[in-house]
Structure formats: structure tokens, C-alpha cells
């Protein structure tokens, strides 16, 4: 029997690479939808013309322009790119699912914890209200709406609202590694703001869980159950590199580097718990920040890009 195929929009990126490798190690075929042609890939226009490959059992939406790209100024042009790269790609996947003769069993789409407006103490679960109040909350609302399939399609739907993904070779850890390694790292701003986070292996495993478990649907918070502040993160990450992590990154510097609207992602935070994720039986390999950061120690060799070492 042919292996089941999982189609991943934006599967060439940081999370998508880990997920693709995990899926392949579990016997799935993976096809990535990308702006760039290549083997085991299709472009967005090929998706539009030819539809989903035969045997597509699951579709995952992970495309999105990197919001914290320091090389890009935060202006209306970049805001448009951030938005279109998420919403148009998600809409293309939805259209392809609707047009498929044999529908995939599940569509897993991505959103962010930016859905919940920053707050110093309020605890957000998947049932909490959000989705309005600032640019990122509204972006997440529109992103989630774009992923909605009509009920008669019959494909199960899961939306994962991801926290900051921690993995050695990408995202925030890759950007912070050198400053922390040279003892120049520390908390952002006051350090009191909460930082919803999840280890790369766990977010990849959560996508796989959403694909495979038929009882899983609706919104899941893709965050660790360990609620930590920016200061606690800096202490744990610095500790894994044997560095003190005492030098804070002042808020005004973040505002200058990123623009004040975008800088709020770092200088303000939200306390997000994975209530439904836990209720639905997902078990974390990295449930606390110390175990996650230990994995970034220079003494431990892991290969996130190959993803071989992600335990199911
Ligand atoms: N990493 C995190 O900490 C984190 C946290 C919360 C939410 N998320 C969300 O999760 C998704 C995946 O995250 P990631 O860290 O894996 O992202 P990533 O590596 O920055 O990018 C994912 C993929 O998106 C595609 N892409 C980038 N810019 C695009 C554009 N302008 N138009 C169309 N496609 C574009 C690229 O694929 P091609 O170059 O192959 O086209 C890229 O490989 C993103 O939507 C992100 O917002 C990530």
C-alpha cells in the first residue's frame, strides 16, 4: 500500500523541516509547498493548477514571512508581506482541499499566541477571548478565519497557536546564541513579562499528534505548561551555556531595532497555558525550561535539521 502523503505549506522552514523529518521517520511521504521549486516540492502555482497530490491524508499550513527579521523595517509594506504570506498561502491550501476529489482527513493550520493580547498577569487558555486589540491579535484572527473549511467538506480541523519555538538551529535561540555565548545576554526590558515557549521537538510532535489522533480538533495552544518570564528564560539559557545572562536588552533598544509595534512581541508578553492540549493527552518531551535549555548546551550534540532524534 502507498505511504500516506502529508502536504506542508511552508514546510521548508524551521518548524516545517523538523516536522517533515519526523513524518518521514514515521513512514509518511512529505510534499512541501514552496515559492521555490525542488524535489519533493510543489510551488504555490502548481498547487493551484494541479491540486493536492493523490493519497494526501493531511495538509499542514506553516508558511509565513519571519516577523522578527531584523533586516526588514517595520512599515506598512512589510506588514502587508507578513499578512499575505500567512493568509494567502492558507487560503490556497483551503481551496486545494475543497477542490480535491478525495478529501484529506485532517487540516492542521498554524496561528500564534499573539492571538491573546499582552497582559502581565491574566492566564489565557484556548477558551479565553482574544483576537483583537492590536496588529498581531487581528492578524491571528484573520489567519485562523482563512483556515476555516466549510462544514460539508468533512475534513477534521486543528489550529495550533504556537508560542516562541526554541530549537538550536533556528528562531530565537539561533539569534541569541552568540550574545549569550559571549556573556552579553540577558532578559528583554524589565524581564517580568511572560514568554510562552515550546521546544522544537514538541511542536513537531504536536503537529504529528494533531494529524494522527482522530479525537483532536479545534484550537490547541502550542506552548509548554511551564509558565516563565523573560528573566527566567535568560537564566535557564545562560545556565545551559555556563554564562551569567545578567545584561538586559533595554526596551528602548528593542523599539529602535524592531519598531515599537513589533517590539511589543518581546517587551510585553502573555501567560498562555496549554489546557486543551494537555486534556487531549499530549505529553511533552520538554515540559520545563531547564530540560529544554539543557539540550542547547554546547556539550550535547543534536541535529534539529535532520530531526532524527525527535522521539515520537
Ligand atoms: N518559529 C517560531 O517561534 C514561531 C512561533 C509562533 C508561530 N510561528 C509560525 O509558524 C510558522 C512556521 O514558523 P517557522 O519558524 O518554521 O517559519 P520560517 O522558517 O521563518 O518560514 C516558514 C516558511 O514560510 C515560507 N515563507 C517565508 N516568507 C514567505 C513569504 N513572504 N511568502 C510566502 N511564503 C513565505 C518559506 O518557505 P519557502 O521559502 O519554501 O517558500 C519558509 O520556509 C510561521 O507561519 C510562523 O509565523 C512560528
UniProtKB/TrEMBL annotation:
<feature type="domain" description="DUF1731">
    <location>
        <begin position="249"/>
        <end position="295"/>
    </location>
</feature>
<dbReference type="InterPro" id="IPR001509">
    <property type="entry name" value="Epimerase_deHydtase"/>
</dbReference>
<feature type="domain" description="NAD-dependent epimerase/dehydratase">
    <location>
        <begin position="6"/>
        <end position="214"/>
    </location>
</feature>
<dbReference type="InterPro" id="IPR010099">
    <property type="entry name" value="SDR39U1"/>
</dbReference>
<dbReference type="InterPro" id="IPR036291">
    <property type="entry name" value="NAD(P)-bd_dom_sf"/>
</dbReference>
<dbReference type="Pfam" id="PF01370">
    <property type="entry name" value="Epimerase"/>
</dbReference>
<dbReference type="InterPro" id="IPR013549">
    <property type="entry name" value="DUF1731"/>
</dbReference>
<dbReference type="Pfam" id="PF08338">
    <property type="entry name" value="DUF1731"/>
</dbReference>
<protein>
    <recommendedName>
        <fullName>Epimerase family protein SDR39U1</fullName>
    </recommendedName>
</protein>
Amino acid at each position: 500500500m502507498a505511504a500516506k502523503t502529508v502536504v506542508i505549506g511552508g514546510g521548508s522552514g524551521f518548524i516545517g523541516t523538523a516536522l517533515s523529518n519526523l513524518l518521514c521517520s514515521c513512514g509518511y511521504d512529505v510534499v512541501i509547498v514552496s515559492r521555490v521549486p525542488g524535489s519533493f516540492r510543489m510551488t504555490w502555482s502548481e498547487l493551484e493548477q494541479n491540486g493536492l497530490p493523490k493519497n494526501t491524508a493531511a495538509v499542514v499550513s506553516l508558511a509565513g514571512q519571519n516577523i522578527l527579521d531584523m533586516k526588514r523595517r517595520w512599515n506598512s509594506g512589510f506588514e502587508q508581506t507578513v499578512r499575505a504570506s500567512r493568509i494567502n498561502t492558507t487560503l490556497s491550501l483551503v481551496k486545494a482541499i475543497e477542490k480535491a476529489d478525495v478529501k484529506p482527513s485532517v487540516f492542521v493550520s498554524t496561528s500564534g499566541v499573539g492571538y491573546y493580547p499582552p497582559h502581565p498577569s491574566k492566564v489565557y487558555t484556548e477558551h479565553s477571548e482574544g483576537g483583537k486589540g492590536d496588529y498581531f491579535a487581528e492578524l491571528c484572527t484573520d489567519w485562523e478565519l482563512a483556515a476555516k473549511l466549510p462544514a460539508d467538506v468533512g475534513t477534521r480541523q486543528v489550529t495550533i497557536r504556537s508560542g516562541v519555538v526554541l530549537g538550536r538551529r533556528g528562531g530565537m535561540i539561533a539569534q541569541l546564541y552568540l550574545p549569550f555565548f559571549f556573556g552579553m545576554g540577558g532578559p528583554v526590558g524589565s524581564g517580568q513579562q511572560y514568554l510562552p515557549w515550546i521546544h522544537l521537538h514538541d511542536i513537531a510532535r504536536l503537529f504529528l499528534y494533531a494529524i494522527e489522533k482522530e479525537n483532536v480538533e479545534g484550537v490547541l495552544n502550542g506552548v509548554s505548561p511551564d509558565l516563565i518570564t523573560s528573566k527566567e528564560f535568560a537564566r535557564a539559557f545562560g545556565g545551559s551555556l555556563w554564562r551569567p545572562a545578567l545584561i538586559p536588552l533595554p526596551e528602548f533598544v528593542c523599539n529602535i531595532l524592531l519598531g515599537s509595534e513589533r517590539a511589543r512581541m518581546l517587551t510585553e508578553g502573555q501567560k498562555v497555558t496549554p489546557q486543551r492540549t494537555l486534556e487531549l493527552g499530549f505529553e511533552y518531551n520538554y515540559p520545563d525550561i531547564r530540560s529544554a535549555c539543557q539540550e542547547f548546551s554546547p556539550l550535547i550534540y543534536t541535529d534539529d535539521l535532520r530531526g532524527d532524534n525527535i522521539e515520537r
